[in-house]
Write a structure and sequence with these properties.
The relative contact order is 0.17. The strands form two sheets. Strands 6-7-8-3-9-10 form a six-stranded mixed β-sheet, with helices on both faces. It has a four-stranded antiparallel β-sheet with strand order 2-1-4-5, with helices on one face. α4 packs across α5. By secondary structure, it is of the alpha/beta class. The protein folds into two domains: about 180 residues, P-loop containing nucleotide triphosphate hydrolases (Rossmann fold); about 70 residues, no CATH class. The N and C termini lie far apart (about 50 Å). The longest helix is centred in the last third of the chain and has 25 residues. It is globular, with a radius of gyration of 19 Å. The chain is built from ten helices and ten strands. The structure holds adenosine-5'-diphosphate and magnesium ion (MG).
Length: about 270
């Protein structure tokens, strides 16, 4: 059985003051190997919690995760995480960051060097491999983060707003890179984003979550990620269906945000 199965996941956080937060309730998602799922939803609807459970950083209060037929307990190299920023070793060179996982696995110098060189080509950072991470721009740092994740050869890549801190132009380039990596590597990807456009562009499948309790509100199957593999992303955005779905989802999230604001009395 190949793929990722998220089965009736629930997560409740019990707070010290005796109250509790139902961060997720009965969330089920089946992802086939090689599918790209984007996840949207207002702040606090449990997106990061969901990703942390799939990564194995958190144990759910109910439900289970199965990857390629095996139940997931705790973190493992077959699930790689790319964070928004700040998860690299700033003082280390680009090359050492990318080679970190293979080195920890005890890989010999030569194969490690080959893997690192290949991945630096893939993300377009060959020229920068001797630089320390703190010398790079935000976009380049996220390229390093992607390459470092790929070096561990994960089956599933989990991304929590990986492009959220980038300027618009860099972000667009990186969206193209994510699509390219997805097609070339065949990895299963879950990408959380705040940007409706990004979720539409990258999500072959898209889930909109709702808060209180965190749950799946609506699911889409979309053609735009496939279109974007061979085409300028700006052209994809001009597709008439793109605007239609974008408006529908924006309206949906707007309504949820209104409800949250109303509910908190602000
Ligand atoms: N460790 C924690 N302890 C208590 N509550 C938490 C914890 N992590 C998240 N939450 C709560 O769970 C809900 C979902 O959080 P999160 O998954 O971070 O949402 P999102 O990523 O969609 O913004 C929020 O109400 C948040 O305050
Ligand atoms: Mg979050």
């Amino acid at each position: 059985m190949s793929g990722l199965e998220i089965d009736k996941l629930s997560m409740r956080f019990d707070l010290p003051n005796g109250s509790s937060v139902q961060a997720l309730k009965d969330v089920s998602i089946d992802l086939k190997a090689g599918e790209l799922l984007s996840v949207l939803g207002p702040s606090g609807c449990g997106k990061t919690t969901l990703l942390n459970i799939v990564a194995g950083f958190l144990a759910p209060t109910a439900g289970e995760i199965t990857l390629n037929g095996s139940r997931v307990h705790g973190p493992g190299p077959e699930r790689g995480m790319v964070f928004q920023q700040g998860a690299l070793f700033e003082w280390m060179s680009v090359r050492d960051n990318v080679g970190f996982g293979p080195r920890m696995k005890g890989m010999a110098e030569k194969p490690k060097r080959e893997i690192v060189d290949h991945l630096l080509d893939v993300v377009g950072l060959q020229e920068f491999k001797e630089k320390a991470v703190y010398e790079l721009s935000g976009g380049m740092q996220q390229r390093v983060a992607l390459a470092r994740c790929l070096a561990n050869e994960p089956d599933v890549i989990l991304m929590d707003e990986p492009l959220g801190a980038l300027d618009a132009l860099t972000r667009e380039k990186m969206q193209g890179l994510v699509l390219k990596l997805w097609k070339e590597t065949g990895k299963t990807i879950i990408l959380i984003t705040h940007s409706v456009e990004e979720a539409l562009l990258l999500g072959e499948r898209l889930i909109v979550m709702a808060p209180r309790p965190g749950r799946i509100h609506k699911e889409y199957n979309l053609p735009f990620a496939d279109m974007g593999v061979g085409q300028d992303l700006r052209e994809v955005k001009k597709h008439p269906d793109f605007a239609t779905v974008r408006e529908e989802i924006l309206g949906m999230i707007w309504d949820m945000e209104e409800e949250i604001m109303g509910g908190s009395g602000s």
